[in-house]
Amino acid sequence: MTELERDLGRRWFEEVWNKGRRDAIAEMVTPDCVIHDGAHVSLGPAGFYTFFDRMRATLQDIRMTVHDTFGEGDRLCVRWSCRAIHAGDGLGIAPAGKAVEVTGISIIRVVDGKAAETWQNWDMLGMMEQVRGAREAATYIDGV
């Protein structure tokens, strides 16, 4: 894996999330990229835009921090954290106005310098607990 390919994860979090550049999604994701986020699967940039738009409508002052990246073969692993303010109703609940912090890991299969398939694993329950409280969050997650 080249240094440019390893840098894809850092560029993704900086451009897409920290800068909010929706156009960067199509720049870094192949048209037929398969994006696995828990049980949900979306395809290509068009499939990811829905998630991106919902998160940007839900969270303000998003600050993603990449803690580690490493790669082997065509796979890149990125360990990250996010801090933001829950300020919108994009999750179907009223804005709490609270700061939230979540952690996650993304694995990216890189082809020709772009993401061709990704697997996201992030602490959505932890975020919901910060916004709603542990018991109410568990009920929400069970209903999703």
The total count of strands amounts to 6
Q: Which topology does CATH recognise?
A: Nuclear Transport Factor 2, Chain: A
Q: What percent strand?
A: 35-45%
> Order of strands side by side in the largest beta sheet?
2-1-6-5-4-3
* Biggest sheet features: 6 strands, mixed
For the termini, the CA-CA separation is 37 Å
Model regions low in confidence, pLDDT < 50 over at least 5 residues: none
Shape summary: globular
In words, what does this structure look like?
The protein has 144 residues and is an alpha+beta fold. It has a single domain, classed as Nuclear Transport Factor 2, Chain: A, CATH 3.10.450. It is built from 6 helices and 6 strands. A 6-stranded mixed β-sheet has the order 2-1-6-5-4-3. A hairpin with a 2-residue loop joins strand 1 and strand 2. Helix 5 crosses helix 6. The radius of gyration is 15 Å and the shape is globular. The N and C termini lie far apart (37 Å).
Top keywords for this entry?
alpha+beta; Nuclear Transport Factor 2, Chain: A; six-stranded mixed sheet; 144 residues; globular
Helices and strands, with pairings:
Elements: H1 3-6, H2 8-18, H3 23-28, E1 29-37, E2 40-43, H4 44-58, E3 59-72, E4 75-86, E5 99-111, E6 114-122, H5 124-132, H6 134-143
Parallel strand pairs: 1-6
Antiparallel strand pairs: 1-2, 3-4, 4-5, 5-6
